[in-house]
Amino acid sequence: MITAQEFSEGKILLIDKPLQWSSFQAVNKIKWAILKHYKLKKIKIGHAGTLDPLASGLLVICTGKYTKKITEIQDAPKTYTGTITLGASTPSFDMETEVDAHYPTDHITPALIEQVRQQFLGEQVQVPPVFSAIKKDGKRLYEFAREGEAIEVPSRQVFIYKFEIDTTDFPLLHFEVQCSKGTYIRSLANDFGKALQSAGYLSALRRTQIGDYTVAEALTPDDFVATNIPDLRKPIILTTIIEQFPLQKSVNDVYGEHRRQHTKPTKKAIDVRAILGRNEKKKSSAISREFRAFARMFTPTDKAISLTLLVLFVTVITLLALQLSGQPKGIMIEVTTTPEEVITPLLPDTPLPTTTDEAATAKTALTTNAYNQADPQLKHSADIKTLDEIMAERTAQEMASLKEVLVTGNTPTDLAVVPQPSQQPNTSLAVTDKANKHTLVKYALAGRNGTIPNPVFTCEQDGQVVVIITVNEAGRVTKTAIDKQASTTTDDCLIENSLRYAVQAKFDAAPNKKEQIGTITYIFQKKR
């Protein structure tokens, strides 16, 4: 049994690492067992000499102040036992990767094996395997290997103290080797196969000794925890207590018998405990016991920090909710009209309204003045006025004429010009902004008249967008594209509106023209 103080002050632990376990997993198993059972905040722990997951055997773990001895233990000679499989090779020099090539072994004899074995004793120049954790240029070698990148692995000096081989299971060579720090047994197996004019890879490996520490004294991680780290939880002892009490009657039984016998019951016959109940301590539930055990794992400082963070979190959420509740709520209404409601065909030769009746009729028309630029018979100025602007000018002229009539027919003292109230009802700000926006439409398509839909102009920006259109023989627009050179804006809202309404344009049918290319120009402008 090892105490928490011994672990903290320093201890050397001998662990027999199981196959398929990494060295990190073995150390972590011991570390968390110590922290959990002894309720420690932290502990210094590390291992001396890494073992591959495909290798088993001795792993020396140091705790506390003995972690300073890790370098000393790593420098000590190490002893391994294992198996070399001849006649095949793998990229990782062991069974981590699949066999990639096969080689003959018929020429290999025990005498040749002994001769080559002698060559591997003493100081050797060894190249580590590419599938290793050695770093080069800040990157692990196995990362280069897995990416398929060829890289030159630097060699190193190692020393082989002892190398014994058993050839009874040829082509499997069972061996025992004692070597210096930094020796890769996988590279030893690969180099030994090449020296036999064949190939070989490591098929089994177990570390039996590091310096004076042997695997015979080691325990597996599970056995070590079970043996040396006690379970500090209090055991639950189940006992059965059998007590015999004298037979006593309850109050109801006594008074029932009294009613039958018409005799007064005595005090001794009454069970006082049946009236008052036993003063027994209530047993706590299993959930409450587990909660108390969980709470004992935390110090008062931990509890205070957790409570502070909880209060801070609730405060932030409350302030955020108050801020959101204080913001005014806005409602956005988007009105979409169908093409039948907004499209009014404007022929290239349609004259502008010249009389008051025509101007009144034009109030229901679109605020666009689309004409075909490709028609040579029409001549238009570059300055195009919308119908709303023309109507405003007409109204101003009529008001001026009315004033002149009143002046000529009345004396100055009787003259009173009362402004006529607007016939249009007041609208919301959103509608007013929309009414102050206008779209001028022009198109160019040789030999065809068209009906161009008026875009609902709700964008913030203004500018000119030129859309290149492809019209089929039925007069339908089949393709659209933006002429970036002719356009004066890159606003996404304007471009999206132009493309959407350009597709809805309709032109005269032309059976002899399967595809005709033209343009539609949208000039989006605000009323100044």
TrEMBL record:
CDD domains the UniProt entry points to: PseudoU_synth_EcTruB
One of the Pfam families matching this protein, by short name: TruB_N
GO annotation (BP), single: mRNA pseudouridine synthesis
Domain of life: Bacteria
Reactions this protein catalyses: uridine(55) in tRNA = pseudouridine(55) in tRNA
EC category: isomerase
Keyword vocabulary terms for this entry: Isomerase, Membrane, Transmembrane, Transmembrane helix, tRNA processing
EC code(s) of this entry: 5.4.99.25
Active site: D52 (nucleophile)
GO MF term list: RNA binding; tRNA pseudouridine(55) synthase activity
Transmembrane segments: 304-322
Pseudouridine synthase II N-terminal domain sequence ranges: 40-185
InterPro entries for the chain: PsdUridine_synth_cat_dom_sf, PsdUridine_synth_N, tRNA_psdUridine_synth_TruB
Assigned protein family: Belongs to the pseudouridine synthase TruB family. Type 1 subfamily.
Cited function: Responsible for synthesis of pseudouridine from uracil-55 in the psi GC loop of transfer RNAs.
Database matches in NCBIfam families: TruB
HAMAP family the UniProt entry points to: TruB_bact (MF_01080)
PANTHER family noted in UniProt: PSEUDOURIDYLATE SYNTHASE TRUB1, TRNA-PSEUDOURIDINE SYNTHASE
This protein's name: tRNA pseudouridine synthase B
Source species: Capnocytophaga leadbetteri
